[in-house]
Design goal:
Number of strands: 4
Strand order of the largest sheet: 1-2
Number of helices: 9
Largest sheet: 2 strands, antiparallel
Strand content: 5-15%
Distance between the termini: 168 Å
Order of helices and strands: EEHHEEHHHHHHH
Shape: rod-shaped
CATH architecture of one domain: Alpha Horseshoe
CATH superfamily of one domain: Tetratricopeptide repeat domain
Length: 278
């Protein structure tokens, strides 16, 4: 151990040297001290040295303990400060992570809302597209076969013609007459026109409007002389003539029917009526 730059051993040697000097001096004064006194002096000196040594060691230990305590205190303080700094850093990091979690949750919610809105928009667009396609389909010409004729007609024409024919078949001849007149007037170029004139004539015949019926039957014959309904139209004209008491005209019509369309059912009916008219 060191004490003010000197080791304890060095101090002890100094004391021992002092004792030797004292003893040597005592040899010159041998008469003054005897051996017991010298021995006691040495023991006292040794005791003092030990006491001093113990005191010095105690002080050194105390000073060392103080330095250690100070060092430990400084280290503890530094560690505490570093710990506080780490805790603050950790707390800041936790706060940042929590803020990030909140932001991520918010963004996830926004994404889910956007996904729902996108899905709803796509559904609406799909529905709108399908509705638009349906409207276009309703506006596009459709292929139909009426009285043996294959043709393209507008959806509205098809709907109106079928509605008018449905009225006739239900026996509502007045309504059917009005519907067919309206149809013919609104669709002068329609492929349905010859058939519409035929059924219009029949509806008028059913309501005893024989003159108008004859006009429409003849319009059919003029418009489409090769139409499958022409023989029936001629037979219907003869019926109107008979109802109007024009037997001569009726006979002429029936004869023309037999001559022009001999193989038809209408011609067979015409022959039977001609026989009865004779």
């Amino acid at each position: 151990m060191m004490y003010h730059g000197l080791t304890l051993t060095a101090l002890f040697r100094c004391f021992l040297l002092a004792v030797v000097v004292t003893v040597g001096a005592g040899g010159a004064r041998a008469g003054l001290f005897d051996d017991d006194e010298a021995r006691r002096a040495i023991l006292d000196l040794r005791q003092k040295i030990e006491t001093s040594r113990a005191d010095m060691e105690q002080k050194f230990d105390q000073k060392l303990d103080q330095k250690l305590d100070q060092k430990l205190s400084e280290e503890s303080r530094r560690s505490a400060e570093e710990g506080q700094q780490w805790r603050r850093s950790l707390l800041d990091l936790q706060n940042q992570l929590e803020a990030m979690r909140v932001e991520i949750s918010k963004l996830r919610g926004q994404n889910e809302q956007l996904a729902r809105e996108l899905s709803e928009t796509q559904r609406r667009q799909k529905d709108a597209a399908e509705a638009l396609d349906e409207r276009f389909r309703k506006l596009e010409p459709v292929r139909v076969t009426v009285d043996g004729r294959d043709m393209l007609v507008e959806p509205g024409e098809k709907r109106d013609f079928e509605a008018s024919l449905a009225m006739f078949r239900k026996g509502d001849f007045t309504a059917a007459t009005a519907a067919f007149v309206d149809f013919v007037n609104r669709n002068p170029q329609s492929g349905y026109r010859p058939s519409a004139l035929f059924w219009l004539g029949n509806a008028q015949y059913a309501t005893k409007d024989y003159k108008s019926a004859q006009v429409n039957f003849r319009s059919l014959i003029t418009l489409a002389p090769d139409h499958v309904r022409v023989p029936e139209a001629l037979l219907a004209i003869s019926n109107c003539q008979l109802e109007l008491k024009d037997t001569k005209a009726a006979r002429k019509t029936l004869e023309d029917l037999v001559a022009e369309f001999p193989a038809t059912e209408a011609a067979a009916a015409a022959r039977d009526r001609l026989t009865k008219l004779k």
